[in-house]
Structures are given as C-alpha cells and as structure tokens.
Write a structure and sequence with these properties.
The complex is a heterodimer of chains A (681) and B (295). Chain A has 681 residues and is of the alpha/beta class. Chain A is built from 14 helices and 32 strands. In chain A, strand 23 and strand 24 form a beta hairpin. In chain A, helix 1 runs antiparallel to helix 3. Chain B has two domains: 246 residues, von Willebrand factor, type A domain (Rossmann fold), CATH 3.40.50; 34 residues, no CATH class. In chain B, helix 6 packs parallel to helix 7. The chains are: A alpha/beta (681), B alpha/beta (295).
C-alpha cells in the first residue's frame, strides 16, 4: 500500500473533522450563575486569546491523530540496506554431494555462492554449510567476509549422498537456537533422489526464507552406472563356478537402448570384458566367472567403458580376499554324529564364504589351539577338558567366537561350558504339547538378519522343536529368538572382544527338525559369517557408512589399537583415537585398509550411493512449493542478491505507537477542558 | 455536639422544626449555663422599705422575725420581641455546595426563632422581603407561633431582586415596639444604601443585628478558565477570566465586607459575616449576647 491508497486518501479527508470542530464550529460555553455581578468586570480580550492558544494545541493534537491513523493504514515503509535488518543471518548451503561432480555443477555452484557472499553487506552475519553426506557447518555466524570466503572455497566435491530431509531437520534444530531470521541460499543440482520420502521433513521453520539456486540446467544427460555388484568377499577356490563369479547390474538413467562394454579389473588389470545390452532407462546384468584372483586382498573394479554424462560413477569397486578355506572346529558329544553332518552340509552349501569343518569329540580337544579356527561350535558338548575350556575362554576374550548348542546331554549335566550359567530346566515338548515353534525372531541380529522377513517368521516358523533347555538370559546377553512358550532359543552373549552364541536346542535333527528346513542353511551361513567376523569385512560399502572397529564391551587385558588407512594413504585416526574409537565412517570412495581391534585385517572398497547417479532434478513445482513461492518462478541469483542488499522496513507499528501517544495526550488535555465545564454545570 | 451545628449536616434535615430543635439543644448543651436564664420569678435581693413603696412587696415573714420592713425584690421578667427580616431575593439562591445561601439563612432564622420562643419565651416575628415585603408574621408568644414562623420560612422561596429602599417604610411601620431586629441577607448593595435603609430601625430603640450570608465561592471564587457569569437577579451576562477573580474581585469583596462592617457598627448596629460552610453557633451566640444585655 502507498500514499495513493484509498484508505490513506479517505483518512486525509477525515482531517476536516478537527478543522470543523475547532475553526468552523462555534464554541458553546455553559454560563455560570453568580449571586451578583456587582464586583465582576468583563475580561473578553485576554480570555479569547487564552482560549485560542489552548484550543489550537488540542486542534493540532487531534489533526495529528487523524493524520497518523491514516498514515498507518497506508503501510509506510523505508527501504533500508540489509545491514540494518537486525542481524538477518545469511546461510549459504553448498551441495557437495557426489552428483555435483557431474560436468561443471560444483564449480558453478561454488561460483554462485561466492557471488552471493560478495554481495553480502559488511555487518550482516553469514554462515557456510556443506551439504554432502551430512550437514557440515564450516563456520559460525560471522561477518568476516574473508573467513567466509575461505570456508566456501575449502569445500570440495564429496562422495556422499545429499538428503534434503536431513537439511530440513538440521535447519529446524538450528532455528531453535538462532532466533534471528535466516535467509538460506541453497546451491544444489536439486537432485530428485535427494528428496526424503516425506515432504514434511524438508519443511523449514517459519523464520527461514529459502532461496534456491538450481545449478542443473535443462534435462539431465544420459548416464549409465554400475548399480550393484555381487561378488564373494572370501574366495578359496577360484575354479569353483558356484562361488567364483562376479555379477554386476548396469542401470541407465535417461538413456536410450544401447550396448555397453563392461570390464572386470583386478589389481589394475582388466581380466575380462562383457558386452551387455542395456534397455532404455533399464537394467542389464554382466557376469564374470570364474574369477581368477591371487591370494590376499584383491582390489577389484567393474567398469563401464565409454563416456556418458557422469563418468565418475562408471565404476564400482570391491575387494575379494583369496585364502585357503577357514577351518571351523566342531566339538560334538561322542554319541552325536548327526549334528556335524547337518552343520557341515549347511556350511558347504553357502556360497559367499568358504569354511572347512573339523569335527572332534571333547576328548580330542586337549591339544587344539582355537585361535587357528574361524570359530568353534560346541554341539551338545556338556563336558570339555578343563584345559580346552580355559583355552577357549582366552580365545573368546581376544575376539574369538563360539556357538554352543544344547542337546539332550546337557540336560543330564545342567552346566553349560563357557556360558557362566546353568541350565535351569529342560522342555520336552514331545511329551506334552507335541512340538514348539519359533514365535519371535530378532531379524536385526546379524546371525538371523533379514531385511524383509516373510510372514512365516522369515521361514523360522516352519521348524518344530521337541526339546529345548531353559536358560535365563544373563548380563550382556541378547535374546535373538524365542519359542512360542517364551523359552529363549538363541542367545548372544558378548565376552571381551568375542561372542558366544547359545542355541538351546540341538542340530541333530532329533531335538528339532530345523536342519531339514532351508532356513537352516541361511542361519548357518549368516552365523558363520557373524562368528568369523566376516560381516565386518564385507568387500564393498557405501560412502558414509560406518565400520565397527572394536566391540562395545570393556576391553579385556591390554587395550588393542586399531588402524585405518584411507584411499589417499593417510591415517585419519590419531593415536588416542586409535586406542578408543569404536566405529569409523567411510567418507570417501576408494579402498580403505583397516586393522580391527581383534587383530584381523581387511580391505574395504567404498562406493558412492548409487542414488547420486540419477541426475534428474526435482520438478519445478516441487521446488516452488518448497521455497514457498508456489506459482512464481524460482528466484535467480540476481534477485537473491538484490534481496540481500535491501529490505523493506515497515513503519506502521511505530506510527500506531505514536498515534497512541498523541491520543493519550489529547485525552489528558481534553479532559482538562471537560473538568472545567463540569464545574460550570 | 458541634457537628449538629455543621451546615452540611443540617442540610440533610428536611424539617425546620427538627432542625431548629437540633441546633438549639446542641448549642445550649454546649453552654455552661442553664437555659433558664433568670427570666422567672427569681429572688434577687432585699431592700429597706422607704415610704411610697408598694406594701405588696414587703416580706412579712421577715418583718415578723426582725420587726423591720424589707422589700423582697425579684429579677424582673424581660420578655423581648424578636423580629427576623429575611432576604428572599434571587441572589440568595446561589450555592457552590450544600447548603444554598437561602437554606443557610433559613437555618439561622429558624434556630433564632426557636431559641427565642422555646427557650427565652420571647415574642418572635418574621418579615420575608425582596423588593417588597412578601410575608409578615407579627411577633407573638402565642401557642402555635413557632409553627407559623416555620411555615413562613418554608414558603420563603427566593425570587426577584433585593431592594432595601422599598420595604423600609413597612419595616418602620411594623417594628414600632422596641426589640431585636435581625436582618439576614447577602447585602449585595452599596454599604451606604444598606446603612441608610436599616438605620432608622435603630432609632426606634431596636437592637439591630445584620447577618451577612455569603457562600465561600463568593469570597474566594475559583475558576479554571474564562467563564461567562450570569447575574441571578438581573440575568445579565459578562465574560470573566480567572486572573480577575483571583486578584481584583477578592480585593473588592473584602473591601465591601469591611466597609459594611465599619459602617454598620458606626451606626450602632451589629454585623456578623456568616459563611455557609461555618457552624450556626455564631449567630445564636450573638442573639443570646444581645438578649443578655437586657433586651
């Protein structure tokens, strides 16, 4: 609204009211009776002068009041530089996710951010944030342009996956501490895959004004990428076609149907190439088998030949470790030979890792060194030689793992070796209810892990249990599965750096029929990988994922140090961190060399999140909705810079306050006149 | 008791009879002398008989005891005649707060009349005048006189304007017997004229007392701004500024009062200024002092 607004012009016309009252209207005074005018004299001249003076003051106040109210309706404002906007924070968020490596996106974004920063008025505070795999605050709210510019220029294109939901959450958390309004300038390619599943996660608090600076121009270039690679992490026999093979899934984004050449590179040498036809915007699989690799850690790579819109994502790295099969010590009771057969058969059926089962009875364990085995299985072995039990205890404390099953022998002895607690009772379901089934499974545990378990409890509900020992969960233990009468079936207990997994029934197909079910093979595979710590040595991880360097329990004996060497050859952990840190975040693509606290080594290939390969930007209407400018074009850099320079400061509030003060003064003076008139009456 | 003489308290009493009784009883109770002030057959002294004395006054009992003739003397009955002349002109209507001057004048008149008839057993009369005599009640001690006087006071509503000259002749005709004449007015007139008009009453042997009734605002008027003033008697209007009322007016009214007081006393009359926010006992005390003096 301005000075030509109808309300303001109408208000100006109202100025005539006090003019009429004071100048045109005849003043009426109530005569005051007296007994006699004998001693009074007329005093007109001085009286009139006095009246005029005082009434002119009242007239001026009333005129000012009407004028101020009319002025307030016109919404007056002043155009002030942004330096006077009460410390409005300029928040520069630069997307440095992996997709920003495409073309000149990152350089363009950084240049635009520097332009906005240069347009910042000197006294205004600003803050620089990098949005890659996480919300990384690089500066505090400061006014120093040089420091802000240095922080902005220090941002390099990263390998993480940007998430606008994370950005929204971080800004909401920031707004709780920073009460000043925020002008958030986001420089990003506005990738569609950066949007969270719930749009509400992206919403900013009311005091935040979002100004989008979309770097992506036009339609995204065609891009092919290695979406997924399936390869063995451990390989013992390169000639075994069942295990020695690599499968790569090639995906196209905005691509036509075309034939691509895919290569398998091991140790820098291309050992195989495949030609696959990738449908338009589709997927194709390339398979390499067998894979001939040398002993030790082999740094492998699947690469798409030929250029596309985003060359950086044309390769996927992973690690295959070739070694002799790891041995598993299977200690079983002398009267139980079936358990070893079932367990060994299941272990041999797994394709990802290679283990060789060594089956012994307790009496043969006296001279055995458990540290030479990937893990140890105690199958219904109620009585162990004390020297072997002691050796096992030390083995577990240093990071070894043991799987204990409780068959019918344990029911006679009650004591469970290594566990630290006895069998409380045994349940023989065959004598009572017929059979028990598994009712609860903790699918988050690595031994039974399933991302989307089926309705039959991931296959576990099919197994019938006729016998189970009752063991109460103890400290540092975690119940993984329970029977339908709430009896714990599978319990994990951490001891030092190692684990003890207790299965309260047997593997002999007598106490239950689990070994006959397909889920048994999966269970044995995952359990073997868990107990041998191979799940931590997976050859391929995503950027920003974490690797567990040591177990969470209190260390036993001397504190072991861990070691991490990043893809550039540097050691990111300090000496003190190497003694204490439990997890490490893999922040870059490439091969990390890791030595865990239990002494094992690993090489991990780290790939960027493949969602970053889809370069398509989010729809413009979504951007407008997000920035709160639905129906208007997304603001450009120029507009944003102008908005930083100047700001409208409304004066209506101050005008109304002044009008209130005038009204109070007018009331006081007018009531003085009225008081005189009351006396006269 | 003093609060019963407070005009603001008296203004709440509607009956003049009750008001006068309240005032007088309150006033008398405050005195340290008996209300029976020696007007009865009270023994005074013995005096030796001399030839020519009336034998009816000889105290024969004393003669029988002493064989000497003594006359028994009594304090003589000194019943007097009180006439209240009440100004009922429009100027008496003025008030700045209860009571109005007219009511205050009624209180004074009623109290004096009650005191005269009920306590002093004097004959009391009333003349209500403005520019003429509006009512005349002959002085008397008869039964019902007090009621008639109060009725006369009740009917004395202010009207017209004061003119001392015209009713003067009637005053002289009506007040032919010596006594006490009490004039109650606001005396908005030239002091010379007032004295010249009332002085003849004195020539007849009357004790004349002038009660000058004024409102506090008439002595010290307060104005917060220029005002138009209207004369209650003439209806004339003039515009007056506060500065004048604070300075010149106050000097003039004081001069008027002083001239009035000096001129009246010089003429052998008594003058009392009664302000309507003051108690009534001044007026009553003045009446009794005159009564004690032998009237």
């Amino acid at each position: 609204m301005g000075f030509l607004a109808p309300w303001f012009l109408g208000g100006l016309a109202a100025l005539g009211i006090p003019v009429f009252v004071h100048l045109l209207r005849k003043h009426v005074t109530t005569p005051r009776p007296v007994s006699s005018l004998m001693f009074f004299e007329r005093g007109i001249q001085s009286s009139t002068r006095h009246k005029r003076l005082r009434y002119l003051l009242l007239f001026a106040l009333r005129s000012a009041l009407v004028l101020l109210v009319a002025l307030a309706f016109s919404d007056p404002f002043v155009r002030r530089p942004a330096t006077d906007v009460n410390g409005r924070l300029l928040l520069i968020v630069l997307d440095n996710s992996f997709s920003m490596r495409a073309g000149t996106r990152f350089a363009d974004a950084k240049q635009q951010a520097l332009t906005v920063l240069a347009a910042k008025p000197g006294p205004q505070k600003a803050q620089v944030v990098a949005l890659g795999g996480q919300f990384e605050i690089l500066t505090q709210p400061i006014t120093d342009k040089a420091q802000l510019r240095a922080a902005l220029e220090s941002i390099q294109a990263g390998d993480g996956h940007a998430n606008f939901g994370e950005l929204g959450r971080s800004i909401r958390a920031m707004a709780e501490t920073i009460k000043t309004p925020i002008d958030l300038h986001l420089f990003s390619d506005m990738q569609r895959t950066a949007m969270p599943a719930n749009f509400a996660d992206m919403v900013f608090p009311p005091n935040t004004k979002l100004l989008l600076h979309s770097i992506a121009k036009g339609t995204a270039l065609p891009n092919w990428t290695i979406e997924r690679v399936t390869a063995p992490t451990e390989l013992s026999d390169p000639k075994d076609p069942k295990t020695s093979r690599v499968q790569a899934v090639i995906a196209g984004f905005g691509t036509p149907r075309t034939e691509k050449t895919v290569s398998l590179v091991v140790g820098g040498k291309t050992i195989a190439t495949r030609k696959v036809t990738v449908p338009a915007d589709g997927h194709a699989t390339a398979e390499f088998a067998p894979v001939d690799v040398g002993y030790g850690f082999n740094r492998c790579e699947v690469r798409i030949e030929g250029s596309d819109g985003f060359p950086a994502d044309d390769a996927s790295i992973f690690v295959i470790r070739r070694s002799d099969p790891e041995r598993v010590l299977f200690v079983h009771a002398s009267n139980d030979s079936r358990s070893a057969q079932y367990f060994g058969a299941a272990l041999a059926a797994t394709g990802q890792a290679s283990f060789a089962l060594q089956s012994v009875i307790p009496e043969q364990t006296t001279d055995l060194d458990p540290s030479k085995y990937a893990f140890v299985v105690l199958s219904d072995a109620a009585a162990l030689p004390s020297i072997f039990e002691h050796t096992l205890t030390q083995y577990i404390a240093r990071g070894g793992s043991v799987l204990i099953t409780l068959g019918t022998n344990v029911g006679r002895r009650a004591r469970i070796p290594l566990w630290g607690a006895d069998v409380k009772d045994v349940r023989e379901y065959a004598l009572t209810a017929g059979a028990a089934t598994i009712s609860q499974v903790d699918f988050t545990h690595p031994a039974v892990e399933q991302e989307q378990p089926t309705r039959d409890n991931g296959g576990w509900a099919e197994a019938k249990f006729f016998y189970a020992a009752t063991v109460d969960p103890i400290i540092h233990s975690r119940v993984i599965a329970r029977l339908n009468d709430d009896t714990p079936l599978l319990i994990d207990k951490q001891v030092g750096e190692g684990h003890i997994l207790l299965f309260t029934s047997g593997f002999d197909n007598l106490t239950n029929d689990l070994p006959l079910h397909p889920i048994f093979v999966v269970f044995v595979d995952k359990t073997a990988r868990y107990l041998s710590h191979q799940e931590r040595l997976t050859g391929s991880q995503l950027v920003d994922s974490f690797v567990e360097l040591r177990s969470g329990a209190e260390p036993v004996g001397a504190i072991a140090t861990v070691e991490v060497i990043d893809p550039t050859g540097h050691r990111p952990l300090s000496l003190s961190e190497a003694r204490t840190v439990q997890t490490f975040q893999l922040r870059r693509t490439g091969f990390y060399q890791v030595r865990f606290a239990n002494g094992r080594d690993a090489v991990i290939g780290v790939n960027p999140d493949r969602r970053e390969s889809d370069l398509q930007a989010m729809p413009v209407d979504i951007q407008q909705l997000w920035s709160g400018n639905a129906g208007e074009p997304v603001q450009t850099t120029t507009l944003a810079a102008d908005d930083v320079k100047y700001r409208r400061v409304s004066l209506s509030w101050y005008v109304m306050l002044f009008a209130l003060a005038v009204a109070v003064t007018e009331s006081v003076i007018a009531s003085g006149y009225m008081g005189t008139q009351r006396e006269e009456a | 008791m003093q609060r019963f003489l407070d005009p603001a308290v008296l203004a709440g009493i509607s009956s003049l009879d009750l008001l006068a009784k309240t005032v007088v009883d309150g006033f008398v109770a405050g005195l340290h002398r008996s209300p029976d002030f020696g007007f009865s057959q009270e023994f005074a002294e013995y005096r030796a008989y001399v030839p020519g004395d009336d034998l009816r006054h000889v105290d024969w009992n004393l003669f029988a005891r002493t064989e000497r003739c003594y006359l028994k003397r009594y304090r003589g009955e000194t019943n007097s005649q009180v006439t209240v002349l009440l100004d009922a002109s429009n100027s008496m209507r003025y008030t700045s707060g209860p009571p109005p001057k007219m009511d205050y004048a009624r209180f004074v008149a009623a109290s004096i009349l009650y005191l005269a008839i009920h306590n002093q057993r004097d004959a009391a009369g009333l003349i209500v005048f403005d520019d003429e005599i509006r009512e005349y009640i002959r002085p008397s001690r008869r039964q019902g006189q007090l009621s008639r006087l109060f009725a006369g006071l009740e009917n004395a509503e202010p009207r017209a304007r004061t003119d001392f000259g015209r009713p003067l002749e009637h005053f002289q005709a009506l007040l032919h017997r010596r006594g006490i004449a009490i004039v109650i007015s606001d005396f908005y007139e030239d002091p010379e004229t007032i004295v010249r008009t009332i002085e003849p009453l004195r020539f007849h042997g009357n004790d004349v007392v002038l009660f000058h009734i004024l409102d506090p605002q008439e002595i010290r008027p307060e104005m917060k701004g220029p005002s138009i003033l209207v004369d209650l008697e003439t209806g004339k209007e003039i515009e007056v500024i506060p500065e004048y009322t604070k300075t010149t007016y106050r000097a003039k009214i004081q001069t008027h009062i002083e001239q009035l007081r000096s001129r009246i006393r010089a003429a052998g009359m008594d003058y009392h200024l009664l302000v309507t926010d003051q108690p009534l006992d001044d007026a009553l005390r003045e009446y009794l002092s005159l009564r004690k003096a032998g009237n």
